[in-house]
Amino acid sequence: MSEAIPLPQPHELSQREKDDALAAYLMNFAAWGAGLPIPSLNLIAAWVYYVINRKKSRFVAFHCFQACTSQIPTTLINITGVGMFVDYVLILNRDLPRFFWPYIAFAVLMNLIYLGSSIYACVRAAKGRIHYFLVFGRWAYMRYYGPNAVALEAAATGHNLPPAGF
Amino acid sequence: MKFDVARQESYSRGELLLRTFFGWLYIMVPHTLVLFFVGIWSSILHFVSWWVILFTGRYPVSFFEFHVKMIAWHMRLNAVNWNLAEGYPAIGTAGSHPAVALEVPYPASLSRAKLLLRAFFGVIYVSIPHGFCLYLRLLATGFFNFLSWWCILFTGRIPENWFQFNVGTLRWMVRLNLYMANMTDDYPPFSGKPTPTEVETVPV
Amino acid sequence: MRILKEVLLLLSLYAGVALGVFGVWRLWPESKAHKGGSQEDASLLDRAEGKVRDLLHREVTADANDEAVVKEGLRKVQERLAPALGKLSFPLESYIIDSGTVNAVCLPGNIILVYSGLLRRLQSPEELAAILAHEIAHAVHRDPMQALKRELGLAALFAMVGGRGDGVTGRLMHRLVSSGFSRQQELAADEEALRVLAASDIDPKALGDALRRIRGDKADDPGVLQYISTHPGFDERVQLSEKASADWPGKERPIDLDWKQFRAQFRVIR
Hints:
Largest sheet of chain A: none
Structural class of chain A: mainly alpha
Number of domains of chain C: 2
Number of helices of chain A: 6
Number of domains of chain A: 1
Structural class of chain C: mainly alpha
Oligomer: heterotrimer
Distance between the termini of chain A: 29 Å
Helix content of chain C: 55-70%
Order of helices and strands of chain C: HHHHEEEHHHHHHHHHH
Largest interface: A-C, 19 and 21 residues
Distance between the termini of chain C: 87 Å
Strand content of chain C: 5-15%
Strand order of the largest sheet of chain C: 1-3-2
Order of helices and strands of chain A: HHHHHH
Shape of chain A: globular
Low-confidence stretches of chain A: none
């Protein structure tokens, strides 16, 4: 493909697509839903959701991809924070370093900013609109609507092919 | 909501014995293992659905279908474990069983007030009364199960009444499940009988 | 490329928030108190130590012997040891408490108490210097706070310190005086003390002499038992001191303090 795929407009999208798209951003809260306070659980849930939904529709795949990738920086920040805590308190059995508390404040702030933008993107997706995140929005667009967008269905030749050489 | 298990004319004694002595190994172990992980996913979707209903008044379609399939999975596992149906129960949400039928209509809209009511007071006005009655019912079901086991062993059949009673227990559990999972606003009746609009039996 | 522009924008967002948070933290009034003079990586324990020091200060200065002669004598001894000590987390303060107790203790916040029961047994200012050097070494090694934390648990410590009720300081003092340190900590403090003595032109055997005087002649002296129980490893310590003295190439420069006059300030208390 050498041309960008045109974006669907809200009236062209089914209710199901809008629901699936908005749910992608709610995977942020997956850890709460599962009851397991593991920082990477949100990212895993978002990734699983992406894998399940990426073949369904381009609009849904776009949102799932954006939601999943934009989680990465926040997840890394959270893992670092938890890792520091585990390391100092549980493994080394020492007191927490003084920079730990400002770091936690930083992590909380970044999480809040990310959650806020997630919810905004969620509400937009529910209406069949698109909100682009910094960097990840552009990346998701290039992947699903750009000139070199991925194909959703399997190649025309089908899934099963003879072994090489035949 | 339609839930039914088709009663067979005759049940295999061999399968009965196999299930009784080894069912824990070849049925429960694989199912429990997979159910554990899918269960985590299910609880995440439940959680997300709760918030979507709160803000939009609708259950996300894909999640609804997923949960219906989860319930169907649980019910076919139960049906086979209780010797009501035969054959290996399919693992996974994509599976189905010829004798077990579950149809749940998608609700066009759900009441937010009832959602909140269920969230904060569900334990009091749903879990406790139904829990208590279901507990007694399950005791009776267990008793009928026990009797049915011997019946199948000697005659290869289950009497119609006992069968319907046990299916009714499952039907009650489905209704309770649907209500507490926010998939319907209809308060579950204290009975396992199908309502007049539901299909009675699914032909084998 | 526009995506690079967005990457930069995203990174600057993170940097901005991080700088903002750390900036607020740095400028926060509390952290300033610890910036001056602290060489070690400050921790929660530091803040606790500051609070404990404030609490103890009031109590200690109320009980301490504040005769001019005594204060002058202590100052002279401290002055002699100061150059070899290096920088401390809190300013060093030593006091003498009029009491029959035979003990010397280092409290959190670098407050050192020598009880006159012990002091009366010493025979020279150098021996007093040795005792002080030993206690100061505990301060340098941050032993007091570690011991208190170990005994009370950090949460209890904060609760104790946070409470403004009466009896908090009394309990704290009692715990601190009676807890003592481990044998390892005692020997480590001795090593440091012997080094400090040697560097201050005092014969390291002063420590061994002081210990022997404390033990005295009577084996069942209750005062002695009190000292020994809070300062384990007695014999080893004496041996260490003698060995250090044998290895010491320096020449002793006596401290300019009239010991008889100094000691006479403390009456015998039973």
